[in-house]
Amino acid sequence: MKSLDMYALQMDRTRIGVLVGTGMGGLTAFSNGVESLVQKGYKKISPFFIPYSITNMGSALLAIDTGLMGPNYSISTACATANYCFYAAANHIRRGEADIMVAGGTEAAVMPTGVGGFIACRALSQRNEDPKKASRPWDKDRDGFVMGEGSGVLIMESLERAMKRGANIIAEYLGGAATCDAHHMTNPRSDGLGVSTCIAKSLEDAGVSPEEVNYVNAHATSTLAGDLAEVNAIKKVFKDTSEIKMNGTKSMIGHGLGAAGGLEAIATIKAINTGWLHPTINQDNIESNVTIDTVPNVKKQHEVNVAISNSFGFGGHNSVVVFAPFTP
């Protein structure tokens, strides 16, 4: 961030914005505040309880540290959050409202309240005796996701501005989309309609045809319903999947919730840059109708033409972003 800070000093900082979202907000601060209230009374609640709990503070603190005064807010759409942020940030640039946006997602929910809450939802894997094999997207023996946390943030800039300053352009954002299943609080539509619509809209926004896409970084959380619904949606959009490779980053790092799309955008861009796809690990007994190459257990070389990265969240929120190699 230091380099961005130095660059900001030479630019109009009112045209550099921050859009970093989170699914859960400051869960530790919130839990500690409630505990203080119950055990010691309201006078013992930290003055940081509210500021560190609210979801917009990730963007706000980043702006305070760097002096960036452009559009600044957060989006919270559960596990679809980061892609919503990329999509919205790119549209600020497209509309001429900003030259640069710092965008992505962050989450730190690995704590008793966070883990306990997802246990209550029956969303987590119970493979506690072998945790390294607990996250296993598309495998017949999957039984839920594994909690992860972290942050994934991209610097998004207009092509004209980036080229003018001689920036090291690592990939091109082509487009994105957001839709809703309008179905259930936690379960996806089994027919994948909301997801397939979102993928189709993202390709339309990006100006590319389904035939041009040859890599999918899937949402693939390792849940019974979600994994297959996503595959159904992908097959609806991409009639011929023989050239497509699809992997699940969450098989190795767990589900970062609001940060997941940010982490997976970085994995997607690294695949574009290096020509290597990381494996989907723990692929021992793949579901029979998953006929797309999931890069099982061992990494593969693959020249990415156009890539999509999928993220879906509780509430039926769907988000897809499209990346490609940058060619001057």
Automatic annotation (TrEMBL):
NCBIfam families: PRK07314.1. The keyword Transferase applies. This is 3-oxoacyl-[acyl-carrier-protein] synthase I, chloroplastic. One of its GO terms (biological process) is fatty acid biosynthetic process. Its main location: plastid. It comes from Populus deltoides (Eastern poplar). PANTHER family: BETA-KETOACYL-[ACYL-CARRIER-PROTEIN] SYNTHASE I (PTHR11712:SF330), POLYKETIDE SYNTHASE-RELATED (PTHR11712). Catalyzes the condensation reaction of fatty acid synthesis by the addition to an acyl acceptor of two carbons from malonyl-ACP. Homodimer. Keywords: Acyltransferase, Chloroplast, Fatty acid biosynthesis, Fatty acid metabolism, Lipid biosynthesis, Lipid metabolism, Plastid, Transferase, Transit peptide. SMART domains: PKS_KS (SM00825).
